[in-house]
Design goal:
The chain is mostly helical. The longest helix has 21 residues.
């Protein structure tokens, strides 16, 4: 099954589920900063949409409150977003990588991890040839 495309609000709700684990709609609502908190019914509607997209599922009911858990992992959602970004650039990855490097926003640790990933990928390609 293809990963669902998630909106910003859906991602904020998913982030709470990934961080805090299974949560009720009221708990998801409470995770928003007070000055940015949407209406209860807005969060409820978004959670139900996430359920339709098979990104979350109901796992229990406490009194009249349903508890939801994430079915899509943070890593899978991140990969989907990155794939969508690359598609916006016509499949070209270099402008994105170049921007990240030139912006100076990458930490030395992130650069080390990127180099390590490239070395590992090169080794895998050499073995498969």
């Amino acid at each position: 099954m293809a990963l669902p495309k998630l909106t910003r609000l859906e991602l904020r709700i998913m982030d709470t589920l990934w961080t805090k684990g299974p949560s009720s709609i009221r708990e998801l609502l409470a995770a928003f900063p007070e000055e940015e908190r949407p209406a209860y019914t807005t969060v409820q509607t978004v959670v139900y949409r996430l359920e339709e997209k098979k990104a979350v599922r109901r796992i229990s009911k406490i009194s009249n409150a349903h508890v939801f858990e994430a079915l899509v992992s943070r890593t899978a959602a991140q990969h989907r977003l990155i794939d969508d970004l690359v598609a916006l650039f016509g499949g070209k990855r270099l402008p994105i990588v170049t921007h990240l490097i030139e912006s100076g926003d990458l930490t030395p640790e992130e650069l080390r991890e990127a180099r390590k990933a490239l070395r590992n990928l090169s080794k895998k390609k050499e073995k498969s040839e």
